[in-house]
Amino acid sequence: MIIDGGPRKNFNTAAMLQKIAEGATSVSDKIEVKTVRLYGLDYKGCVSCMACKLKDKTSNVCKYKDGLTPVLEEIAQADGLVMGSPIYFSEVTAQLRALLERLIFPWLSYKDFSLTAPKKMPVILTYTMNANTEQAKTIFQLMGLIENCLERAYGNVEHVDAFNTYQVKNYDRYELDAFPEPMKRQYRDKHWEEDLQRAFDAGKRMAQSIINKEV
Questions:
Q1: Which of 3, 68, 84, 98 is the most exposed place for a label (fewest CB within 10 A)?
Q2: pTM for this model (two decimals)
Q3: Measured between alpha carbons, how far is 195 from 187 in angstroms, rounded to an integer?
């Protein structure tokens, strides 16, 4: 399952996720990839209904019914999970954050604070951001709690990120003086194809690990 938490269908995050998908499907015709764009769904974050914590009815899949329900159910059955988002104000988009609340909270036991996902699986996170690699270190620290939960419940979590990305296609139309286009272009020309190749390779590794587990 690939979860696209970005608003733009054909920009940085979507391109990285597409390469991950291509890498995965290059391994075997047994690999099936489904991509879900969160911006096309109507749903909420956790509504604190506590239905997942009912005595004798606890569930590690969110019970609240809306447009996200089938996505969460499919993630529970998947063999690998990829989630991508641009970084806004040092965080993932509100859409992906809402999914993460609904995904992770049902795993959390209020008896012993253990985290139990429906199944173990490899996870790839891809973040695209205007920040450079040094600035990204602070961003990753802020997001550490969520990623710690993913690692405890799923096991293997891999990063494949893209830094200092283009924010728009035509810089002449916008007030973006703090990020001069020549500087951005120089970085992009040097790194973007490498970023896409790393995404492809990550998807390929995930698919190979899934196939090897089946053999």
A1: 98
A2: 0.87
A3: 11
